[in-house]
């Protein structure tokens, strides 16, 4: 998602054609059509000068004509992605109707002024895409050693209440607030994984499963990578959350029926978990995964492996626009490494390139049926 991967962008600096180039002055001028009196306006983007996707760090200055401005200097050919907010992601700029806008893009070539007209703000528009379909329950403020407490949402399949003797596979998903409930989702657009699973189950194309959405925190990047917090998060899922779910719901707790899925950094983490803990998980869905530097250690992990083919199934996909295009080399390197270790497309490996898709919940919602069918589809 635009937001779920925001911290990674700090680590992918814009490319420059040389080190001695004369910098260009770029002035961002924001013209709001609607503006609460007590608010300020901020710019945030993928460059450290734009706050590295911190929505309340880089303030613009109000001008006598009612616009808001700030000037920055960048080398020529610097590629920028950015958004405008009033200080946090709940107040980002949206369309007049309330639709969350894609990242704006700009390539530096000369001294320039970029005029940005703001039609509305998210908190004033309250646009929500999607709804909760089916039976969900919540586990609040769950704690794990070394990580922040978080909520968990559990989606139960259509037959759960009416067939009390039946047990179900479980899919654990990262960024849990973004997958089922649009009210908690980033940009109020969720993955709609509940609607998609409900439809596939109703069409008899997919097994009934339990889905567990694990909310993220502001330590997301550290928790979703190979850091101490990342190791603590994985331990929490395996040693704290999974026993809770298995003891509370009628699950099939064995590895054959346990999967993990996520996008962006969550896609990286899903791979790490199934690769390192194949005694716990047998399948992983990795949507728009972060396999590029400095997270290409995931690819190296595969290259260094010399045992028999891992008894796991991997779904990997990527878009072709914006950030997803920049992640593409990592996906290609991972696919090559997996094939070299005996993984075969259509058997234990699935790849899909959604060439027109951006890095967002809206894009993942459109193709989440693919990993669901790959992992839990009826033969």
Structural descriptors:
379 residues; alpha/beta; Immunoglobulin-like; Rossmann fold; 2 domains; eight-stranded mixed β-sheet; four-stranded mixed β-sheet; 9 helices; 24% helix; 26% strand; globular; disordered N terminus
What does this structure look like?
The protein has 379 residues and is α/β, with parallel strands linked by helices. The chain folds into two domains: 6-125, Immunoglobulin-like, CATH 2.60.40; 135-376, Rossmann fold, CATH 3.40.50. It has nine helices and 18 strands. Strands 11-12-14-13-15-16-17-18 form an eight-stranded mixed sheet, sandwiched between helices. A hairpin with a 2-residue loop joins strand 11 (135-144) and strand 12. Helix 6 (297-303) runs parallel beside helix 7. The longest helix is centred in the middle third of the chain and has 21 residues, at 228-248. The two termini are 31 Å apart.
Low-confidence stretches: 1-19
Query: Which H/E pattern describes the elements?
Result: EEEEEEEEEEHEEEHEHHEHEHEHEHH
Number of beta strands? 18
Please give the CATH architecture of the largest domain: 3-Layer(aba) Sandwich
Quickly count the domains: 2
Average pLDDT metric: 91
Strand order of the largest sheet: 11-12-14-13-15-16-17-18
Q: What is the number of helical segments per DSSP (H or I, 4+ residues)?
A: 9
Biggest sheet record? 8 strands, mixed
Strand content: 25-35%
Any idea of the CATH class of the largest domain? Answer: Alpha Beta
- What share of the residues lie within helices? 10-25%
